[in-house]
Amino acid sequence: MTDLATLQTWMQEVVGGDAWTLDEAIASAARHGVDCDAAIVGSERLAAKQRLEIYLLSYRARLLECLRAEFPVLRRLVGDQVFDLFAGAYLGAHPPSSFTLFDLGAGFADFLEATRPQPNDGRGTLDALPASLARLERAFAESERAEGVEAGTDAHSPMPFDIVFLHATRLKRPTSLKLLLLDFDFSDLVAAVAAQRPHEMPRPGETPVAVARNGYRVRMHKLEPWSFSFLALLEVEPRSVRDVIAEVSNALQASQGRIGAQLLAWLPFAFDAGFVMAG
Q1: pLDDT value, residue 20
Q2: Which of 43, 188, 220, 268 is deepest in the core (most CB within 10 A)?
Q3: Does residue 172 contact residue 237 with C-beta atoms inside 8 Å?
Q4: Which helix (H) or strand (E) holds 171?
Q5: b/e code 225-260 from CB counts within 10 Å (16+ = b)
């Protein structure tokens, strides 16, 4: 009889490693000195190895189900068959190693980018679309999970009334804010999938995006270059708006007065959307 520790190690390798087929699971058993027929109780209807195969297939199906749930827009765009090919290849290359299924899709976008046909056609082309969309959908999942403005007492602090007071304000961004510089405009596609209506292919083009949560609802917002730069320069620790305006002005070659005026009009929306918090 194989000892319990060896059986546990073997099963962990089978369900949590890269032994995705029955032959691989049996080979893994041999490496650990496990006799499948002795370790697993069979019956007249199902032999021990058949029961093991059912377990393997069920576990893999559960992982695929999790990825389908996390990336519904990508799945809708490419279709079930292609999505499952993407997901199956990802799980084979990166078997789960975390205690939580939340971490399962963390590397999916990077995997899709790394496995694009080579040589690839660069940014904004059809073969770049799956990775870019997966990055956006992962940002939704991370924003939903992170601590946001709902946890703070200052999320809806009074707005500055003039440019002088604005410059003295200290702001920070919540960890629920995710900034992305995407190769496509996915706005219409995301809205169409959410409304369960027909959709068109996303338009290529550099698209600054904020994924943010407020009122426990996650939304995607397209940004202007100046507001994207402003949010990118903010940190989770408070920063002086005066300093950030100066950096944005220098980066975009725009006057500080112009950036400050735009910021004054935009901040009420930024607070309401969950982009910023008062420091």
Answers
A1: 66
A2: 220
A3: yes
A4: strand 170-172
A5: ebbbbbbbbbeeeebebeebbbebbeeeebeeeebb
